[in-house]
Amino acid sequence: MNSVKGVVFDLDGTLVDSSLDFDAMRRDMGLALDSSILEEVERMGGIRAERCRKVLERHELEGARRAVLIEGVASFLQHLDFHGIRKAIVTRNSRPMAELMLSQCGLRFDWMITREDGPAKPDPWSILSICEGWMLRPDQVAMVGDFRFDIECGIAAGARTVFFTRGRDHRSLPGLEKADYALESFSQTKELLAGFGLPG
Ligand SMILES: [Mg+2]
Predict the structure, then answer these.
(1) Which residue, 31, 57, 138, 166, has fewest beta-carbon neighbours within 10 Å?
(2) Is the pLDDT of residue 89 over 80?
(3) Measured in angstroms, how far is the CA atom of residue 3 from the centroid of ligand 1?
């Protein structure tokens, strides 16, 4: 198998933790607890959509302000830099909130795709655009994320997929069974790099 030459990360819950309470968000918007927030708001339109967008912004701003870097992320990113692996972020968050989280956590990425830029995950558009920009085939790229949309997006693009489980009960993680690799913690850097075909 080819070694990985580029890694696309989800932002919230993978690189940084803003402790967003999606169920509270759904409650404040009057949405069903199993609904996909962005898609629901998009569908409803009109005044109700406006009101829901304000709720979303309020939650996201509070989350972005309290965002912290997830343990082990800084050193993992350094390893990737050392090996010359390209890095990008694909997030369903808005650009202002995502930028705020990055600056709050001292992270710098050359390339970040946010929900303003095009179809959001699980649509594979973002990863495919990045592959094109990097001039890499999707199978030379890995998608790392903590939610099933990250894995579905990676699979649809033809990338390798890493589900960041972060100590959660595996039975509560739909999509995990489809991922190529389950990552408990970024302190498993050596194993993950080996999985990418790179020396630790
Ligand atoms: Mg996430």
Answers:
(1) 57
(2) yes
(3) 25
